[in-house]
Amino acid sequence: MPLSSLKPKMRPHSSLKQEFLKKWIMGLQRCSFSKKNMSILERKKAIKFSADIAMASARNGTTCWSRSLISNASKEGSDIHVVEQILGSESDRPAVENKVPTRRASVCKKIVKRSCRIRRRRRRRKCVASAPSSIAKHLVRKRREVLKSLIPGGEFMNEICLIEETLDYITSLRVQVDVMRSLASASVRASE
Amino acid sequence: MNRALPEILQCSDMTVLERQRARLKWQQEQFQQHQQESYFSELSGVFSSQTGHVQGFRQGDLMSCGGAAGGGDSVLSDVVMTRQLKPDPGLETAWPELGKVDMGAMGFGPCGYGNGQSFDMNQAISRTSSCPPAVAAAEVKGNLEKMGLAVERDSLKKRKVEKLQNSKVVAEDDSKRIKASEEEESKITGPNTRKSSNNKKETYGDTSKENSKVSDVQKPDYIHVRARRGQATDSHSLAERVRREKISERMKYLQDLVPGCNKITGKAGMLDEIINYVQSLQRQVEFLSMKLATVNPRLNFDIDNLYAKDVFPYCTTNFPTVGNMAQELANHPPYVQFNPFQQVVSGCGVEMGINSTEMALQRTISAPVSIPDTSFLNTSCFTGMQQIQPSAAWDAELQNLYNVAFTGSIEGSDLKMEM
């Protein structure tokens, strides 16, 4: 991922918001068209789902987290039409692209898990080093694992990639929160 | 053998590795030859003694050396030479700075050539400089101090140097060295390499800047890395160091992005903040989607109507500009935002984890979250009725978008999607 995209304020955020909003509303339309009388939780899920997919598709497959988010969403059969709607005409391409990495990714995932298990076993046998540097490393490693669990598709990234993806993910989340908040407030206002 | 090196260097038949090895050999020989020569006493007034160590050489370092000269810290100006001999011009330009320090006419030969793998760092405490013979000849006349810079921090990652370029650069460097009149002096008291602080560390960015300054002949297509003082020079640790620098660079970006990260310096602390921030953002998304679900029982977000409304005093408090930011954020938006929702939620009896702690969290978080978002918020209100900064283009375009979306939808003429 190019580092230039990470530099703060390089992207025109308003256009990003527009894109997100448009795709989100499209997805919601598709959702509500298919299901009638959704419960509140279902609605919430649909809203969040469409928002996530819209956010991910706004990246056009440039970031790892967006790809993995879309591929995870595509796996469930029920909502795949929403995904297709949002992705639009490109729905074929990303779907094909995502299938291959998910297979490879699942293999990688198994390998990573196996190695983590082995490492953990080894670590247990070893006595905990009292050197401050190793303690610091341990702390950092733990936090990195937590971060990996937060970012979609984070388990497969090395550290550099993880931080880049985090940056991008944070900006996307912010955009999402902003747009949703403004929409919510406007809706609340309008309903009064 | 003394004179042989430049010729060997200029020979374009040799591979880069062979050239390095030749340099190293020559340098070692120089070291052995001049080991007895010691002109440290002359410089004792200038520099205090310090154990020899190899270090990266750069302009900043030279400045600090110059500055520290009075203070008594001596610095062994070893040059970490990359294959393209970049540091030489760097040294060269920095030497005039040293001119301020009265050092006597000593020539300095920053020839830290060599092959990192084959050279043991610990023997690098040589007092003699491995100057090319031409320079040595010119400067040995007077009180020449030869610094031993047997450092091979061979820190190149990719080795695609063109031999022609190399020879050109060597020639350039030789001439520059002859011109140089200043030198760096340090006392090497023994075979102990003392690891200094990282003040001599040179980042990748700096080397690349020097690169661009140095010569237009070179087109570096590899990463220049300088090893730290007293650190291992094998490729693994260097690669790891590059990796670490990349990571820290990206962490700096994260520091700007995540609010409240500026005060924290440790990696673990920063990661903590980042994790908290990401979690809070994700929770906000959940929360807002729930809110939207309750507010809008039919999932029909009638954007047109929202646009049509004239009065949105709520918006002004919700999207303050930079000017009004501080006061407004402090007081109104979180409360105004949550009160109606609270009523709605209590009415619906929805259990979503919206409890008082969550609300409190939202309150505390929306304030800091929004502050760095001024850049986002300036043109962000899509209701279009922002009293402060109407962004006409954004609104008009968005309305058009929605018109298109609505009319082009499957529902046909129906503008609203009704359940």
Descriptive account of the structure:
- Chain A is mainly α and 192 residues long.
- Chain A is 76% helix and 0% strand.
- Chain B is mainly alpha-helical.
- Chain B has a domain of 50 residues.
- Chain B is built from 16 helices and two strands.
- Chain B has a two-stranded antiparallel ribbon.
- In chain B, helix 13 packs antiparallel against helix 14.
- The N and C termini of chain B lie far apart (91 Å).
- The C terminus of chain B is likely disordered.
- Classes of the chains: A mainly alpha (192), B mainly alpha (419).
- Chains A and B meet through helix 1, helix 2, helix 6 and helix 7 of A and helix 9, helix 10, helix 11, helix 12 and helix 13 of B.
Radius of gyration of chain A: 20 Å
Q: Whole-Å distance between the termini of chain B?
A: 91 Å
Average pLDDT number of chain A: 73
| Strand arrangement across the biggest beta sheet of chain B | 1-2
Order of helices and strands of chain A: HHHHHHH
Mean pLDDT of chain B: 52
Beta-strand percent range of chain B: under 5%
Keywords (chain B): DNA-binding, Nucleus, Transcription, Transcription regulation
InterPro entries (chain B): bHLH_dom, bHLH_ZIP_TF, HLH_DNA-bd_sf
Pfam family, one (chain B): HLH
Main location (chain B): nucleus
